[in-house]
Structures are given as structure tokens and as C-alpha cells.
Amino acid sequence: MGTRRLTLMLIILAVLTVVAGSVTHHAPYTPPPDEEGQKTLNERPLILVHDVTPYYFDDLRQIIAVLDEYNYSNRTVLFVIPVFDTTHYGDEWSLRNHPDFVNYLHELQRRGYRVELHGYEHTYHEFNCSYETANEKLDNATALMNSLGFGNLTLFLPPAWALNNESLRAILEHNLTVVMPNWLILPNGTRQRIWNREYTWYIGENQVDDRLSVALHDYRKASEDGIPFYLSVHPGVVNRGGGLDFLRAFLRTICGQKKS
């Protein structure tokens, strides 16, 4: 009789453990407690906006409008393409040809948004190339950005995450920190662990809640592990379906405030 009772208790405990785990996975984000048992505020996520180019001017404005609702300029990095997709458009979307867009970027800078580098032309796997080619592209990119008033660049996000050892060496020699999905690679070659993910790749309106649950779970886990959390978005992608609804809900939860 005692054995049966013990077996029953073990089964009940196992079921409760599974249920608790499921509830925890889908629970809203709450900061982990400090040593005194009180909730601590973690460093807020960085928002990384890829593909910043005049080609996506209207889409970028929509993204900025959502970020501004939560005063998120100081935690947002705009990764700029100096000359977008020369394979298909030539120099049509070069920053030089769009002073209105350049002025807009400077306005965003003054408001706290950070401007950094996202390749040169953003052609297919652009930086999966030789050291010499990468070095030339970086020289051209930084020279163009400097000529337009965007000096002191410190971050480089490779298009499509495509790199090799040769191109990486050229980037680091330009004193740029490389942003990847799991690592920051510093100019001295050391690596810092990060969590950098995109949750809005052509999601439908009916997927917002599920994607938000996953993102908040990831943020909670990264915070508990002491890993900086970055959220990537692409103009022209996040603007479709439920993307901006996700971004707004994510920021509302993280910032702990209602839409202003």
C-alpha cells in the first residue's frame, strides 16, 4: 500500500513539473529578483535596424514612429547601406543622391539614434570575399559616410551575416566591431557573447502573440544568463503583416508603459 501511495505521489509531482514548465515558458516577462528578492531592471534590449537606405525611406519612418512611442532612440542602432544594391540599381540609391534621406538620418542622430555601417553595396554575400576586396569596399564605405557627416563609425553588421577569415581581418583592421547573431567580434579579435535574433520575418497578424511569447522568453533567459539581448528588424519586412504590432507589443512590455 505504501509503495502504491509513493508511486502516485511521484506521478503527481511529475505532472505538476511539466505544467509549471509550460506556464513559465509562456509567462509574461518579469525581471529576475536581486539578492534581496526584489525585481531588478535589466539593461533594455538594443534594437538593430538593418538595411537603412533611401530605398526603404517610408518603411523606416514607420519603424521610427513605433520606436518614438516608447522613447527608444538611445537603444536603437541604424545600420546604413551607403550604396544599395548596385547589381540591380547602379548608384540610384547611393546616399549621395538622396540628401533628404541623409538629413533625416542626421535628425535621428541628434535625437539619440545611432548610425553604423551595414556593408557597402549589400550585394549577395558581399563580404564573403578576399581581404583586398573587403578592404577596398570598407575604404569606399567609410569615405562616403565620412563625406556625409557620419564619422566615428564603430560597428559593422555584415550583409546576410556572410564573412570569411580574410574579410573579417579587413573589417577589424578598420577598427570596427562586428555584430553577428551570437557574438560581437571586437577589433582586437576577442569575442563577446550576445543574443541577437529577428522575430518578425514576414509574420502574419495571427502570429504576433506566439512570436512575442518566444521573444520575451529569450529575453528573460538572456537576462538571467547576463547576455546582452539584441532584436533585429528589417524595413520592408517588419512593416508587413504583424511585424509592427509585434514591435509595439514587445516595447510596451519591456518599457512597462502604455502607448504614449
From TrEMBL:
GO terms for biological process: carbohydrate metabolic process. Pfam families: DUF2334 (PF10096). This is Polysaccharide deacetylase. CDD domains: CE4_MJ0505_like (cd10921).
